[in-house]
Amino acid sequence: LEATLDCLANHGYAKTTNNLICEIAGVSRGAMLHHYPTRQDMMIAATEYAFYKHMSAFSVAVRSLTASDRMDRNSAIAIDWQLCQTREFLAYLELRVASRTDSELRNIFLPRARHHDVVWKEELLKVFPEWRNDMRKLDLMRRFIRSVLEGMTMSRDLWKDPRTEWALLGFVADVVLKVRNDELSFPSDEG
Predict the structure, then answer these.
(1) Which of 38, 43, 154, 171 has the highest Cβ tally under 10 A?
(2) What CA–CA distance (Å, rounded) separates 33 from 37?
(3) Concatenated DSSP letters of the chain
């Protein structure tokens, strides 16, 4: 699985072949096929593994923050951004993008990604219990943050501008504070 994440993050989905995975992992094709008989089986396992590694690293890091860092400075935004640069996240994002045009991959990726969305929300409630009182606000905010971070990750090679990245992250952190403190709100569902 580690070699699969390396391949996805560094070579992309289209070039991630069983042969390349075996070469990077230093295992025989037979050994790999014993555990993952098809490429789809490998992609299912890689999807799950990448997601849970990202989520676990995020949760551990957020739990280590002081209350002030977590609540006042929204340091979790910076943590999540740093984790968006890991090969686990890049591999997951690669699978997400590739699933847009590859129907076979979409059929295995999307149901898992939808499940991961539910699991991520449950984990966020554990590390940010203050959002529990307004689930709509939590849902919109977590999707806003995820959309911005994924977009920034996709644009990083294009921009090559860390100052802009940190300015955007600071803006996101400010928006989160304002929404959490009811100084800014999302439009109603009716509009």
Answers:
(1) 43
(2) 4
(3) -HHHHHHHHHH-TTT--HHHHHHHHT--HHHHHHH-SSHHHHHHHHHHHHHHHHHHHHHHHHHTS-HHHHHTS-HHHHHHHHHTTSHHHHHHHHHHHHTTT-HHHHHHHHHHHHHHHHHHHHHHHHH-GGGTT-HHHHHHHHHHHHHHHHHHHHHHHHH--HHHHHHHHHHHHHHHHHHHTTSS-PPPTT-
Residue type, 118: V
Q: What is the pLDDT of residues 28-37, one digit of tens each?
A: 999 999 999 9
pTM of structure: 0.91
Condensed to tens digits (0 to 9), the pLDDT of residues 121-152 reads: 999 999 999 999 999 999 999 999 999 999 99
Neighbours of 9 (CB within 10 A): 19
CA 177/CA 175 separation, integer angstroms: 5
Phi, psi of 36 (to 5 degrees): -135, 90
| Residues 177, 28: Cα–Cα separation, whole Å | 51
Contact residues for 167 (Cβ-Cβ < 8 A; gap 6+)? none
